[in-house]
Please model this.
Amino acid sequence: MRISHKYLIESIVFISYVLFAMAWVGGTASMNEIMASMDINSLASASMISGAITLAKILGTFVAAFVVIKFGLKTAFFISAILVSFGILTPVSENYELLLLSRFIMGLGGALMIVYFNPIVLHCFTAEERPIINGLNAVAFNIGTAIILWFMPHINQISGNWQISLAVFSITSLLLALIWLLVKLESAHKSENISAQTHSVNYSYSEGLKDKFNWIYALSYSGLLAFYICLFTFYPQAGISNSKWVIGFGIIGTLVGIIFSKQVSLRIPVIRWSGLAIVFSIIGLTYGGNNSIQLLSSITLGFFIFLPMTALITLPQELPNMTTQRITVVFSLFWSISYLLATVVLWVFGRLVDMNDGNYGPSFMFITIVSSSIFIGSFFLPETGKAYQQLNPEVS
Model:
């Protein structure tokens, strides 16, 4: 039996990442129980887990293109899926070192997987189909996160406890990884396929690092990514927490973004004006002062953070002479640079809090300014939408 239908392939990719999110966020949500079961109360130990996760994201996204070049796209995705299934060690860990290792390996798998979305989409789907598929892939992590945030207690009731729940997520990931072995990517090539000559054009890491687009692209997103991580780490410590609403309306925003990208074939306007709306929503959430304003700001924020994701992810795929190898390098650098810069921003945020004796005011001002990166970056990113290409055929 071979799986060559592109929508079946996409279903495996999509569900794999949803399961990764469920295992990942489920482990985070159960971290108090996990640490208590090991009699670990050290904040330093908890911070080591966060550090390992960050390292896995940076390292995994950076080496993702190398793995594809070395082993091929199908095997590379299989490796990422197997690494994700190592999350099964989290609920059975009897010591801190094994817990740390399980989270690192699973994070590494997820980091690889997020990069492989794009070459798979470019390989299997036509230009008209890609915005829908990109949007679905963009919302996969949110769907997994939402399931955990809203339903984890019910899932634990059905399974019996949190250990069994996390184990089931990882076992299901392993089963999907094995099913992936039946995939025949060669038969899933899109009809208006890249020519063999173009497909074989080499695009190395060194070329990617010299490409101005890759730096603008990563810098545009890195500030927003930093804020998003900050929202779920530092904001609750400052007494501001509406994560369920941000995640929930993020799903709605992504779905609207898919429809918008199909109806409006320009990418920059939705990125630019969503970026501006994000800044105003952050101001409302941070400085609103009462629950109603913060709730409304959280809803608006979640919607506009994810509304432009379809356009943002589709944009590089529409660049002239794009190949599967080049798109892999582009997104490998995009995610690794974004996570690296976001890590620096979060360190500066925490440092500012410490320097001001626990006062979050300067840090909030700093992260609000940084979050405007996607709005500012939209003035430097190229327009690649179909309407623009029709008016400027030399870029298509």
